[in-house]
Specification:
Elements: H1 4-57, E1 63-65, E2 70-72, H2 95-106, H3 110-123, E3 131-133, H4 134-153, H5 167-179, E4 193-195, E5 207-209, H6 210-214, H7 217-227, H8 231-245, E6 256-258, E7 264-266, E8 268-269, H9 276-289, H10 292-308, E9 310-311, E10 314-315, E11 318-319, E12 329-331, H11 337-343, H12 347-364, E13 370-372, E14 377-378, H13 390-402, H14 406-422, E15 423-424, E16 427-428, E17 430-433, E18 438-440, H15 446-459, E19 469-471, E20 477-479, E21 519-520, E22 529-530, E23 551-552, E24 557-558, E25 560-561, E26 567-568
Antiparallel strand pairs: 1-2, 3-4, 5-6, 6-7, 8-11, 9-10, 12-13, 13-14, 15-16, 17-18, 19-20, 21-22, 23-24, 25-26
Helix pairs in contact: 1-14, 1-15, 2-3, 2-4, 2-15, 4-5, 4-7, 5-7, 7-8, 9-10, 11-12, 11-13, 12-13, 13-14, 13-15
This protein binds 1-deoxymannojirimycin.
């Protein structure tokens, strides 16, 4: 017989077990929540240490020299390795302030953001005799202004109500107009250099890079959407299409080319310097503007990269004509690639290369600019680490997709290294030589635009909760707006995917939950396969079990292995 005393004992036992499980639950959850909170504060302090010192010692010049506590008017030096044609009479364009705008909003400092916007509205001018790099000025200055204007136009953010009369858009349009003469070439491919006041200089070099003419479409396209003037989008698109037509029969691209003749100069390329953001912008343009063409281009380029450049978890360089490996090198810039892979749901591949980059980071304390894979050593001259963001960026995307707390630990390790090796009294200094940790007197503006931003978002992603954003290659957020999307054919729009047709603004749980890839409706009643489906890696890759396929980052759902051995996201099973 069951005695009431037993009943009471059982109840007490049950309550005890519940309390215990509750306790252990909170034990298993709270340490991560507490760590994230602590780390977020650390990153905030880093950002303000960099920002306040810039404002004290360098503003309104371009960048801070944190060791000598002075400034550099470096806009005309960006990408200008030989420091040619430097201006005589140029006093800077508050580059670091422009680059900090979206980070201030993400960190919730609306007051400082508004103060910065008002200062820029009243003081910034692009009528300066300075020869600048079109790509750098586009991603840093135009991107910073366009993104800040879009944040100001978002009524839910309640920024500068009444006091904002599109001043940043006026500045952005003025800058966009100054870019236009660069596109006046026989091929439509833009010159790499332009003088903001006088246009293309006499005897200007006709050599440029793949990313220099293939990654302008987000900023220029956004400018066209906002101003209603199609010219910016159309010149960027024309250049991109011309570049596309120059791919080899293996669907590969080179690194440098001639804008006058449309001939390649450097046939070897990879996913790093000179090419990186070209691939990035094909996918991100598809997300931002919804055009099917961008997806097709990205898909074909991505498959070629995985086929010819990938070697296990590493990516080497190859000759675009033969596909033969040229340089076996890991570069710090390549570390953005896993983040891009997360956006298409190729999480397994992203995770394995990210681990290798982090392994090198741990070995040296930071990522050296170039590491020779075949000799397992740092490149003899490229030993520097200029506070680059790429590893932090990929860590943020991978944590969004997997919620694996290991990435929080990676972020913590990055933060600790930055504080240990690069923090000085007057800001954060670049590292000249990672083998000695000797510093260099330069705090790059992307440290505020990207490095601090991605680390902050890793520990606190509330900014991406209310809206879907595409982050430009310089980390400036652009909201995904349905009225910027081209109409997609009905068959490509799943019935539950309403925002393209109806919603005025995308509202999803996080940026990762956006279905970036339209699903293809084969036949009613049949399975619908996500277009994100990409046969992984080498052309001979076949998965055996679901375990081989990882998580789809756009929906956070596990991908599964099809009967034919392909990883995919099977939406209706
Ligand atoms: C940034 O200016 C951008 O991320 C660019 O695409 C590549 N390099 C730097 C940061 O490393």
């Amino acid at each position: 017989m069951f005695h009431p005393r037993h009943y009471t004992t059982c109840l007490l036992l049950l309550l005890f077990l519940l309390a215990l499980s509750d306790f252990s639950m909170s034990q298993s959850q709270s340490p991560w929540a507490a760590k994230k909170k602590r780390m977020k504060e650390k990153v905030r302090n880093m950002f303000y240490h960099a920002y306040d010192n810039y404002m004290t010692y360098a503003f309104p010049h371009d960048e801070l020299k944190p060791i000598s506590k002075t400034f550099t008017n470096s806009l005309s030096e960006l990408g200008n390795l030989k420091l040619e044609h430097l201006p005589q009479d140029y006093n800077g364009s508050a580059l670091t302030l422009i680059e900090s705008l979206s980070s201030l909003v993400i960190m919730g400092n609306n007051t400082e953001f508004e103060r910065a916007v008002l200062w820029l509205s009243e003081n910034l001018t692009f009528d300066v005799d300075a020869r600048i790099n079109l790509f750098e000025c586009n991603i840093r200055v135009l991107g910073g202004l366009v993104s800040a204007h879009l944040l100001l136009s978002d009524s839910s953010k309640k920024l500068l109500q009444g006091a904002y009369n599109n001043q940043l858009l006026v500045l952005a349009e003025d800058l966009g107009k100054r870019f236009l003469p660069a596109f006046n070439t026989p091929t439509g491919l833009p010159y790499a250099w332009i003088n903001l006041k006088y246009g293309v200089m006499e005897n200007e070099t006709t050599e440029t890079s793949t990313s220099g003419c293939g990654s302008l479409i987000l900023e220029m396209g956004a400018l066209s959407k906002m101003t209603g003037d199609p010219i910016y989008e159309s010149v960027a698109l024309r250049a991109l299409r011309k570049l596309w037509s120059m791919q080899s029969s293996l669907k590969l691209f080179g690194t440098t080319l001639d804008v006058a003749t449309g001939q390649w100069i450097e046939y070897s390329s990879g996913i790093g310097a000179g090419v990186d953001s070209f691939y990035e912008y094909l996918l991100k343009a598809h997300i931002l503007f919804g055009k099917e063409d961008f997806w097709k281009m990205f898909h074909s380029a991505y498959v070629a990269v995985q086929k010819y450049f990938r070697h296990g978890a590493w990516y080497h360089e190859a000759d675009m004509r033969t596909g033969r490996a040229t340089y076996w090198q890991l570069t710090s810039l390549q570390a953005f690639w896993p983040g891009l892979q997360v956006l298409i749901g190729d999480v397994m591949a992203a995770n394995s290369s990210h681990r290798e980059f982090f392994h090198v980071w741990k070995r040296y304390g930071v990522l050296p600019e170039r590491y020779l894979l075949d000799h397992q050593m740092i490149h003899p001259t490229e030993k520097y680490y200029p506070l680059r963001p790429e590893l932090a960026e990929s860590t943020f995307y991978l944590y969004q997709a997997t919620k694996d707390p290991w990435y929080i630990e990676v972020g913590e390790s990055i933060v600790n290294s930055l504080n240990l090796y690069t923090k000085v009294e007057g800001g954060f200094a670049s590292i000249k030589d990672v083998t000695t940790m000797q510093l260099e007197d330069h705090q790059h503006s992307f440290f505020l635009a990207e490095t601090c931003k991605y680390l902050y978002l890793l520990f606190d992603d509330s900014f991406v909760h209310d809206n879907n954003y595409v982050f430009t290659t310089e980390g400036h957020p652009l909201p995904v707006l349905s009225n910027w999307h081209e109409e997609l054919p009905e068959a490509y729009v799943p019935t539950n995917w309403t925002f393209v047709k109806r919603q005025p603004r995308v509202s999803r749980i996080s940026s990762m939950s956006l279905q970036v890839c339209p699903a293809l409706n084969l036949k009613s009643g049949q399975h619908i396969e996500s277009a994100c489906h990409i046969p992984d890696a080498r052309s001979d890759f076949r998965c055996l079990t679901d375990e081989d396929c990882g998580v789809d980052a756009t929906t956070c759902r596990r991908r599964s292995c099809s009967m034919a051995g392909f990883c995919g996201l099977w939406l209706f099973r």
